[in-house]
Automatic annotation (TrEMBL):
Superkingdom as given in the UniProt entry: Bacteria
UniProt organism field: Desulforamulus profundi
Keywords: Membrane, Transferase, Transmembrane, Transmembrane helix
Name this protein carries in UniProt: Glycosyltransferase family 2
Domain Glycosyltransferase 2-like, chain residue ranges per copy: 40-131
Residues forming coiled coils: none
TM region(s), chain numbering: 6-22
GO MF annotations in UniProt: transferase activity
Keyword Transmembrane helix listed: yes
Amino acid sequence: MWETIGYLTILILACYGVYYLVQDLFRLVRHLPGPPVSMLMVLRNRAADVEYLMRRLESWRRYQWVNLEVVVVDDGSEDDTADILKGLQQNLSFRFVSLEPESLPEHPFRKDRAFMTGLLHCQNALVWVVDLRKLPQGLLAEKVFRVFFCQGWR
C-alpha cells in the first residue's frame, strides 16, 4: 500500500513538473506583441505607386507582432495622390491627413509642417517616420517597399 502511494506521489509530481515545463516552453516560443507603434508616412506626388504601397503595407501589417497604427500625410500633392488615398481609406485601415499646397513652394517650414501635423494625429508614443518625399519619382514601388517595410521592422 505504501508502495502504491509512493508511486502515485511520484506520478503526480512528475505530471506537475511536466505541466510547468510545457508552460515555460510555450512562454519562450510564444511572441507577445510589442508596444503600440505609429507609422507616420509623409508623401507628395506618389500617385503612380501609392496604391501598391498601401495595399502591400496592409498585407504586411497582418503578419506582424506589433500593434501598428498608420498615419499618412499628403504634403500638398499636385497629382491624384490624395484622391487615391481617400478611395483606399474605405477599404484599408489608416488615418489620412491632406495638407493644401502652400503659395510659396519652397517655404522653409514646409517640411516641418507635414511632420508636425502628422505627429499630432499619431496616437502612440513610439513613432516610425517614413518620408517618401525624398525618394525620386522614378524609383519603383517594390524597391520602396523592400527598403522601408521589410527591412525596417523585424
